[in-house]
Amino acid sequence: MTAQILDGSSVATQMLASLRSAIADSVLHPTLATVLVGDDPASHTYVGMKTRRAASVGIATRAVTVPASASTDEVVQVVAALDADPYVHGILVQHPLPAQVDERRVFDTIADRKDVDGVTSASFASMSLNTGGFRGCTPGGILTLLDHFEIPLTGRRAVVVGRSPILGLPMGMLMLARDATVTYCHSRTSDLAHQIRDAEVVIAAAGSPQLVKADWVARDAVVVDAGYHPGGIGDVEPGAAERAGWITPVPGGVGPMTIATLLTHTARAAGVDVTPATDATSRVRSDAGVPGSSSNDR
Ligand SMILES: NC(=O)C1=CN([C@@H]2O[C@H](COP(=O)(O)OP(=O)(O)OC[C@H]3O[C@@H](n4cnc5c(N)ncnc54)[C@H](OP(=O)(O)O)[C@@H]3O)[C@@H](O)[C@H]2O)C=CC1
Ligand SMILES: Nc1nc(=O)c2c([nH]1)NC[C@@H]1CN(c3ccc(C(=O)N[C@@H](CCC(=O)O)C(=O)O)cc3)C=[N+]21
Questions:
Q1: Which ligand is nearest to the Cα of residue 117, counting in written order?
Q2: Which of 43, 263, 291, 296 fits as disulfide partner to 218, beta carbons 3.0 to 4.6 Å?
Q3: Local confidence band at 276 (pLDDT 50, 70, 90 cut-offs)
Q4: Taken in order 211, 246, 170, 23, is the CA torsion positive or negative?
Q5: pTM, whole model, 2 decimals?
Q6: Stretch 91-100: mean pLDDT, rounded?
Q7: Is the CB of 234 under 6 A from ligand 1?
Q8: What is the mean pLDDT of the chain?
Q9: In the predicted model, is pLDDT for residue 141 greater than 90?
Q10: In the chain, which segments carry CATH 3.40.50.10860?
């Protein structure tokens, strides 16, 4: 049996279609500012993808680039100016920033109402405490995807591989808020294979190509591969699809959901009424039904 596909591309396309009509029906002109520090080619590619996708739904973008040699204060000033600009509704500061820049200070300069990427300390607290605000785009997009396919989380053993502040850490907190039993693995975890063999839900977000081996994956597990490496390679070995119950493809899984979530948040930050049906990111519901008991063959 091969896994069923958590098709992020198709869900993202539906979200973008609803977004496009909601924006067209409004008098508002949502604008997203992207801040790119340095000249990392991959980061330019991501920002380019976001810009094109934004244009396709009627969201304007303003791309700000800052030299790779910039200090923390210089980047903070750029973000503060965007905070003060009434024509900018959302701000995305592309991660990672150069080593000399204090990423946390830069993120925390973003005003809460403009934090459409969900990266500030305040947004992290809201995600953890379930008190509103914008979710992180990648973790929020993953949760929307799991909800779309009605994957239950309540009571399930979920393992997150990675604990970065924009992805792994908030992902685990969101699943905890949904009553999963969450375990974090990271670079100092000594028994990664064992942890994954025991997991009913695996979120791979380590940034290490094919780190998660196919034969670690439990039968019928839900596998979300957030890794994204050149050549369409994820953090999970492709053979995992032979064992998992559900799996995200790379490409076509988490990536498109991240962008659709970012753009939905941007429209909402501008005041566009994006109905909950098109966006589960603002909705917190309790899981219907009983968690599936996936049989581990160890
Ligand atoms: N598709 C999308 O929309 C997005 C995809 N990504 C992708 O997700 C991946 C992770 O991104 P990001 O969180 O920003 O990355 P970071 O490099 O910031 O964090 C990686 C995390 O993985 C952990 N880790 C690294 N190596 C191992 C290992 N061998 N075993 C266990 N844990 C490990 C690290 O542990 P420690 O804390 O101990 O250092 C760290 O917590 C990347 O491939 C990135 O490209 C990211 C954002 C969006
Ligand atoms: N502050 C911040 N927020 C981010 O959300 C963020 C970031 N920094 N830094 C970099 C990572 C990476 N990232 C991706 C988004 C979409 C795809 C995506 O759509 N990928 C397509 C592939 C498209 C193609 O290959 O042409 C897919 O997976 O199907 C990939 C990667 C967001 N990131």
A1: 2
A2: 296
A3: low
A4: positive
A5: 0.94
A6: 96
A7: no
A8: 93
A9: yes
A10: 26-112
- 90 annotated to bind ligand: no
50-75 mean pLDDT: 97
The Å distance, Cα 285 to ligand 2 centre, comes to 27
One-letter amino acid for residue 287 of the chain = D
Which residue of the set 25, 39, 85, 94 is catalytic?
Answer: 94
- In this predicted structure, the answer to whether residue 280 has a pLDDT above a threshold of 90 is no
Report yes or no for ipTM above 0.95: yes
Dihedral class, residue 207 (left if φ above 0, else alpha if ψ from -120 to 50, else beta): left
pLDDT of residue 105: 98
Out of 3.40.50.10470, 3.40.630.30, 3.40.50.170, 3.40.50.720, the CATH code matching 136-254 is: 3.40.50.720
Q: Answer whether 124 contacts ligand 1 (Cβ < 6 A).
A: no
pLDDT at site 275: 80
CATH superfamily of 26-112: Leucine Dehydrogenase, chain A, domain 1 (3.40.50.10860)
Sheet containing 60-66, strands listed edge to edge, beginning at the edge strand earlier in sequence: 60-66, 31-37, 90-93
Identify the active-site residue in 50, 115, 220, 287.
50
| Nearest residue by C-alpha to atom 19 in ligand 2 | 255
> Rounded distance, CA 169 to CA 128, Å?
10
Query: 261 in ligand 1 pocket by Cβ < 6 Å?
Result: no
The DSSP annotation for 226-281 comes to ---BTTTB-SB-GGGGGT-SEE--SSSSHHHHHHHHHHHHHHHHTT----GGG-GG
Distance CA 217, CA 236 (A): 9
Residues of each domain in the chain carrying CATH 3.40.50.720: 136-254
Give the residue among 13, 8, 61 at the shortest CA–CA distance from 266.
61
CA distance 136 to 123: 8
